[in-house]
Amino acid sequence: MYVGVLLILFGEAWLFESRILLFYALGSFVVVHAFVLFYEEPHLRRKFGDAYVRYCEKVNRWIPAKPHGR
Asked: What distance in Å separates the CA atoms of residue 44 and residue 46, rounded to the nearest whole number?
């Protein structure tokens, strides 16, 4: 969901050729990234333990990758 919203913001900045929207999109990315790093991931690590750590080792944070072996 975060990636989708950020893509929309960056797309609007590009479409309207707006520096203000670009700075807004960049600022939004910084805020969302900080939220994920400092709140969401530690909370999930506490809640799910080693299972979440293993999940993080296999999955990229922001850009989905093609599954291995396919």
From this structure: 5
